[in-house]
């Protein structure tokens, strides 16, 4: 690690020293080169995978955007043009930007349904939208990955997990994936709560749109499900990407370099520009605040784009400052850890 980034290392170590962190990885690229790569916690190795929740949404989106880049699907195509029987009159662009009107699965389902891709997609296809598509946003907390992933499957024939592995993770050497096999499951860190009230706090008011979006199927905030082979082996692309911080930082380094990493071009510069442009600026009915949605990411007023996950993991690119940042944690808590690491990083730049 370059000496100039010592304050970042010290901040990372302090999180463990005071008990705010129990297992995590941190990876930062600056000016096109990896400059920080840290892991901490009992049993953690450089190849330890961790569930990073919504940090996976842009990864799923990139699979569909690759098909857009190849001319296989259009951003302003109706979803139903590729997915017969899909009732909501939304476009591919509206799905990608969280404005499609389907932020929650419409039928209450038990935890076992997590592994039933066809059932959950059929629920979405038959659903009525909760608002006119394109009129407002609401983070499609769980549904996003099924909407995007089923479009990938309908257009390409492969599941989004297999598409990711073969078309993106393989060529760019990214250690991340959806729907893990047994060998990769053995590399996973078990998640734990920073405090026992975390799941209740994250769900919000019972019956609210947020609670419906995050609480169905059951179990998505429960450790017994999250640390199980059911969860790790299923494809729930909105929320169950398992990744290393270094894999995520590499991905954003490729996007920051206009779609090329280590000489391997996966995306056109035009596609990256469109994917990282603000498509929606306004209230988000699930987040209950103003949001800037690109095609799969959140844009921030400082010009950065990426995604944080419930629980504290996060990954993004900051074009103005020239870095990519990824934090993958197994301790489900708030984002204050990332805030402090970023403050330390900015002090080094």
TrEMBL record:
Species of origin: Micromonospora globispora
Name of protein: Carboxylesterase
Gene3D superfamilies: DD-peptidase/beta-lactamase superfamily
Domain Beta-lactamase-related positions: 12-337
Coiled-coil annotated residue ranges, if any: none
InterPro entries per record: Beta-lactam-related, Beta-lactam/transpept-like, Beta-lactamase/esterase
Lineage, opening ranks: Bacteria, Bacillati, Actinomycetota, Actinomycetes, Micromonosporales
